[in-house]
Write a structure and sequence with these properties.
By secondary structure, this protein is of the alpha+beta class. It is 29% helix and 35% strand. Strands 1, 9, 10, 11, 12, 13 and 14 form a seven-stranded antiparallel sheet that branches. Strands 5-4-3-2-8-7-6 form a seven-stranded antiparallel sheet. Strands 15-16 form a two-stranded antiparallel ribbon.
Amino acid sequence: MDSTNKSETFKHHQNDANQSIRRPKSLATHSPVVATIVAKAVTVSKLENNELTAVGKYGFALAGDVKLNYYQLLLYGSKSSILVNLVLTKDFKYNVNENNTVEFISKENWHLEFSNTNDAVDFNSHLAFVLWKLNGFKELFWFDLYYPSRNDNVAMFGSVVEIIYVASTVQGNTIGPEVSNNIEDSQYLKVNVNQEGWERSLLGVNDSTQRIVYIPYAEMGAWKILTNGKQCLCLTVTVKNVYEIKENDINDFLEIVNQESLNTAPINDSSSIQVKEIVENNQTDQIAASLKTVCIESLYDEFEKFKLDSIKTNERLTKLESLVIEKPNKIENSSELKKSMKTLYKSIIREFPVDQTFSGSQIQTIIQNIFHNTLTSSSQSHSKNV
């Protein structure tokens, strides 16, 4: 593997900030008190004439003074055998490579291999926090902790990434406490990799990539409910699957929905909406469509909960039930009922795409708006006919 080209292709510590670093007011008058933050054993090599030369086993440590925001990176064998003693700045380049290996330049081009994945993830997590702080706290920042051998299944803009995550708040120099995770959930969180928002931090991930993301409050989106409005969020992510979504597949699905008749099943039947989910086949590198069923009954359960929780939602549902069940004779043409129901179902499909997940409050707000718009449209149409 050409390590130089690989590190150039994938830049693992990313940061949107171009602002200058906030340095301590005076290191001259306040001498840093350096303490070890994390240290691991590594196997050291260095790149010379495009070839790796083995150096041996050494200690690799991150040390510093947290209060003064002063940090050093050390590669050492003993007090008399120090290969690297480097003061870190926001411009420090450190690449996480495949299978527990990393590289950085300090006079020499150093290549290190951690003893195991846990050591690599632990060290890289601490270093990521330091580099994020050196870059000023306020920008979206992401950093790979580990990834296996690269393949062609890399997340691009428009891809859907399934992840497991642990979310923790960040206040000042402290990470924690944990505020959310989906480790024991039956489903992974699906994220659409966009060019805007925190989702762009998943650009370039592979299956099994572990990445840490620091999200400022302004870019949290739905994650804001986990903070107090002043905190940042630390998201530790493990990628389970990467899907590529093609535009023509989405258009095909929408065309099917537009042509589908909604009166083909009895009211009490377990009706379902079949939607296409694009699945990447890693062995054949082809995209295959598989059906995923979203049961209307599950949405009905949500409606019942909303009845108990919201007076406004209850009123709107009661009006709709009255329109559809108790007073069908008020609708002179049954096509009006079909049209209203078709509009309702298409609204649900549009507002709840299969590649996204929603919080309870989001679902409630969206459902309220759907029913309000449907009732308003139906009332206006009925008034005109009368």
